[in-house]
Write a structure and sequence with these properties.
Blueprint (H helix, E strand, L loop, with lengths): L2 E6 L2 E6 L4 H7 L23 E4 L4 E3 L10 E3 L3 H17 L14 H9 L15 E2 L5 E4 L8 H10 L4 E4 L6 E4 L16 H5 L5 E3 L12 H11 L9
Parallel strand pairs: 1-5
Antiparallel strand pairs: 1-2, 3-4, 3-5, 6-7, 7-10, 8-9
Bound molecules: FE2/S2 (inorganic) cluster.
Length: about 240
């Protein structure tokens, strides 16, 4: 594969043609905020936190932008930092994120990103939606109040577990993750209770029942383990 040269924050960098820009930025040690991205899952380009500024001034989500010859990229301009802070504030304003009583307090990716950018208040009116919880599953629970619609649960269930229990219903602020055809989790016949969705969820929207404030920490390393195993055909079955 051809190698391309691009300029990132005034430094010349070489990368394989077609590589996604976010991967190149991380290879270069540039810290990029992300929420919908998770190594091992397909890209969605939905949260827009990983936005970069191209030479033309155009903003692009780096997780879905392949590198190109001659590309000029700025990752932390004043404009980008402002936009990222605004995105985070809008996420907080859209649902009911009350960190003080959340199972993921201290381990939440949304909370980390807000703290990293120095967000100390929200300039927008809170929508305070009246959202339900689904605690019908025997081991896990879903709290829509803390969901940021990153769709990691949808993608891990579809791409890794192969069950496709999760989906998204509705539009805009009325979007919700749903189970099967919008039924109670506990009554789902397609859910294998593997818990992968819970582990990849960046906030406390999906959690283990019985976990209390600040008790949940999520593990993502199973993704790499499964993908490596698949690549090496560790679990292939050959009929004699
Ligand atoms: Fe790129 Fe969310 S991480 S858009």
């Amino acid at each position: 594969m051809a190698v391309v040269t691009l300029t990132i924050n005034d430094e010349m960098v070489s990368a394989q043609e077609g590589t996604l820009l976010l991967a190149v930025l991380r290879e270069q040690g540039i810290e990029m905020p992300t929420l919908c991205h998770l190594d091992g899952l397909s890209e969605r380009g939905g949260c827009r936190l990983c936005m970069v500024e191209l030479g033309s001034g155009r903003l692009q989500a780096s997780c879905v932008t392949p590198v190109q010859e001659g590309m000029v990229v700025n990752t932390h301009s004043e404009r980008l930092v402002k936009y990222r802070q605004m995105i985070l504030e809008l996420l907080f304003a859209e649902r009911n994120h009350v960190c003080a009583v959340c199972v993921m307090n201290g381990h939440c990716e949304l909370q980390w990103e807000a703290a990293k950018i120095g967000m100390d208040h929200v300039r927008f009116d809170y929508l305070n939606p009246d959202l339900a919880m689904d605690a019908s599953h025997e081991r896990y629970a879903l709290d829509h109040n803390r969901c940021i619609l990153c769709t990691r649960c949808v993608r891990v269930c579809d791409e890794i577990e192969g069950a496709h229990v999760w989906d998204v219903m509705g539009r805009g602020v009325n979007s919700r993750v749903i189970i099967d055809l919008n039924q109670a989790w506990g009554s789902s016949q397609s859910c294998t209770s593997c818990g992968k969705c819970v582990q990849v969820c960046p906030t406390g929207a999906l959690f283990d029942k019985g976990a209390t404030v600040a008790e949940m920490e999520k593990q993502h390393n199973f993704l790499r383990w499964i993908l490596d195993g698949r690549e090496k055909n560790v679990w292939s079955y050959s009929a004699k």
